[in-house]
Amino acid sequence: MIKISYSPYTLKPVQILNAVSAAAPREGVLLKVEWSDGLTGYADLHPWPELGDLSLEDQLSDLRRGRMSGQIEQSIWLARRDAQLRRDKKNVFEGGEKIKSNYLLSDFKLLKPGFLDELKNEGFTTLKIKVGRNLKEEADILTHVAAAGLKIRLDFNSVGSWQIFERFMGSLPLTVRPLIEYVEDPFPFDVHAWNEAKKLVKIAVDNQYDKVPWDKLSAVPFDVIVIKPAKTDVDQAIARCQKWNLKASVTSYMDHPVGVAHAAGVAMELKKKYGEMILDAGLLTHRLYQMDPFSAELSTQGPYLLKVKGTGVGFDQLLGALPWYQVKMN
User: pLDDT at position 146, please?
Assistant: First the structure.
């Protein structure tokens, strides 16, 4: 038997987050999971209904009826990892290999003169850009990024169509294309259209992952799987990477710092185990929100997230001081 309690929180964005959401406050809950063997672990639950997740209310109400969403299953898997580390007095940042993160740019107002050079001086080699709101402006901006010599990841969040994507790629100067490491979810998943897109540039599957008919494919129309431990079955995704000879990039889910620390632990563990198959991660999403006591505990050194104080994913005192409400099963 397990006992699950939750503690609500609100994250306040400091900018627009992506092409499908505004800069409104975001609600989530931290979960405390207690097992009958005496172990206790913590995880995050931060749905994105805009990207197809069940709402927070629906997931918690299903849980009360004894039904677990895939996202809650992942949260419990992560909480168990945390619980075992806490039992052994170990920290999630100690068990893997240091891994770089891309710099996430979702607001072009930040692109002031000297900004990209500053990023390079800090040690960043890859810039991830949320696109799909104003493709002409975005194509112009990519020219500046290419001139700075940074690798580029583009994330369309599945907005648009194959025709729009093809036009956008055609509009890019020749200097830009070789620097694009991959494009995430260029438009809603379609095997034929994604195969065409893959001829233009490397493609990564992220929030369209669940739409892929894995058992029916003879070849996959993408090159990279974006693994979000907050919602992706990690072992299954890695098995698919091995089967289809794909790369993987581990990212947080633009969620609570507890979720960020969990994603970092998974990313470092996979990097140690699978080496070259694991690309740079995307873990620095806490900067998209106003600072709170949890994000104040997250420190970075250029593209690296540093160890959080405490056991498991850390934050021991903060987690201990939160109000917790038990999920009463109906």
Answer: 86
